[in-house]
Amino acid sequence: MTVRCGVFRRYLMSDTVKADAPGKAHFTAGPFPARQCSTPPLRFGISAVTELREGGGMSDSTRLERMQGVLVRAAMAASLCLAGSAAAAQSPHAQPHCTPVGGSVMTNFITPDTTLGTATGDLRGAVSASLLGVTPASDGTVVFSIQHHWTTDAGDTLEIAVAEAKAKEVATGLYAILSYPVSISGGTGRFAGASGTVYNIGAVDLNTQRTIFRYHGDVCFKMP
Questions:
Q1: Helix 42-53 crosses helix 60-89 at what angle (to 10 degrees)?
Q2: How far separated are the first and last CA of the chain, in Å rounded?
Q3: Other CB atoms closer than 10 Å to residue 118's CB: what's the count?
Q4: Are 201 and 213 in contact (CB under 8 A)?
Q5: pLDDT for 9-55, tens place per residue?
Q6: Taking the model in full, what pTM does it have?
Q7: Residue 19: helix, strand or coil by DSSP?
Q8: List of domains in the chain
């Protein structure tokens, strides 16, 4: 990210000094156009100091005053350019960093409508799912409405919207999961401000009270 520093360069390269009071001096801006810079323009301050050290017919006191003014402006220019770069890097408009994720989830029913288990892979941790409802579809499938609770091994939580899992009974009490997108809409720790969707395939066995899934997708993390 570049920062406009031409105004600082004009101060550094100014060639006129006006004394307002004994021991005080300030510079007027020289005729230098604004330019783009990505680093503080310290070389201008060094050049100016070198010229002043050579004297050019100036008295020691005048040369000292000018050197002090150039050094002060060099430090100010460096600080302001760096501050501007830091502010730009922390802009709320910075693009999020997206990364693919994948792994598996395995749970057991602990009540007739709640499962609890573990996740492996990029989102490894503990997972719980609460069954909110079941809706039969005209094509012979059913749609499970599910609320997830997910905590990673690092202690971060994922905020997840209510998901819908489309399933088909392939044997008595055994359901194949045909479509199961899960949307992440924030969380804590690393997942604060994160967003993304993971897609699942798997099976739900009501006979043995067990489930198994494979997930894959992308999570976009908020830039610091």
A1: 180
A2: 15
A3: 14
A4: yes
A5: 444 444 444 444 444 444 444 444 444 444 444 444 455 555 555 55
A6: 0.58
A7: strand
A8: 3-89 (no CATH), 97-221 (2.40.160)
